[in-house]
Amino acid sequence: MLLNIVIFIIGLIVLSWSADRFVYGASALAKNIGISPMMIGLTIVAMGSSAPEIVVSAIASINGNMNTAVGNALGSNITNVALVLGITALVKPLLVSSTTLKRELPALVVISLIAIAFMFDGELKSYEGVILLGLFVFVLAMMAWLSLQVDKEDPLIAETADEIPKGVSNTAALVWIGLGLVLLPLSAHFLVDSAVEIARYMGLSDLVIGLTIIAFGTSLPELAASIAGVLKGEDDLALGNIIGSNIFNLLAVLGMPGLIAPGLLDPDVYNRDMYVMLGLTLLLFLFSFDLIGKRKISRTNGAILLACFVGYQFWLFG
């Protein structure tokens, strides 16, 4: 048991680090070949923040732990909104002013409804996995297109440009990309195997281990990035990373088990967890969306989100 805990922690650290290095290298290479910072931020960086969840989901599905992969997708979205944004807003309220985010938030709600429609019958089918992954590619293309249409006064442009690596050679960028591509699946393999062993020892289901330990672990980079972002005044970027990550979780992370290991879902998925995920997404929409001006996610909003996360954990283990 102790060995598995050590392996899980090391796997999580290496997974997070290799995802960060992959995004660093890919962003630097994209900048060097002339891609705009906004496009890099909305595609490469956004996808990179979900890279740990995507790889973990693929490895879990290959190993036959389909409900662990599904739990990772839903649990990461729940953790991102309730825990990460909850704590971030308590540290410093987030001012939502980017029109780009006001386009992405309704998209997140629609994608959440599509995901729920696919899980509603208690089964994730292979063609549903194909549709989700197809939508993932479509959303990436749409984000790339939106990056070309965005208002030059949008605060997300400056915030994104500040985060893109500068002065990195193509050789160094390719080394970081290659290192990330090797270490991401390797660390995910050890993380999933150790998590399954821990779950069995503690008497937890595959679903719960995905919803809790793995989801929390893979969301830690988002927590660190969000807090650092708001402390630097990059509120829109911090929120944008969460929205982008949640969109990709529902499309790419949930699509993996549908494509690789389709089958019956744990009943708790369609009786409890998908509704919690949807409820928190709608709450985020309510706190963030304002058609006529700026909107702030206040400390009170953050406390509500954090209370929802704590209550959900009691529900899981009660």
Task: Give an overview of the whole structure.
Residues 5-143, 173-317 form the Sodium/calcium exchanger membrane region domain. The chain is mainly alpha-helical. It has a single domain, classed as A middle domain of Talin 1 (Up-down Bundle). Helices cover 82% and strands 3% of the residues. The chain contains twelve helices and four strands; from the N terminus they run ααααβαβαααααβαβα. The two termini are 23 Å apart. 52% of the residues are buried.
List the helices and strands and how they pair.
Elements: H1 2-32, H2 37-49, H3 51-62, H4 66-91, E1 94-96, H5 99-119, E2 123-124, H6 126-149, H7 155-163, H8 170-202, H9 206-231, H10 235-260, E3 263-264, H11 267-288, E4 295-297, H12 299-317
Antiparallel strand pairs: 1-4, 2-3
Helix pairs in contact: 1-2, 1-8, 2-6, 2-7, 2-10, 3-4, 3-8, 3-10, 4-9, 4-10, 4-11, 4-12, 5-10, 5-11, 6-10, 8-9, 9-10, 11-12
Key terms:
A middle domain of Talin 1; two-stranded antiparallel ribbon; 82% helix; globular; membrane; NaCa_Exmemb; calcium channel activity; two-stranded antiparallel sheet; mainly alpha; 318 residues; 3% strand
Any idea how many domains? 1
| Structural class by secondary-structure content | mainly alpha
Proportion of residues in extended strands: under 5%
- Biggest beta-sheet profile: 2 strands, antiparallel
Brief account:
The protein is mainly α. The protein contains twelve helices and four strands. This is Calcium/sodium antiporter.
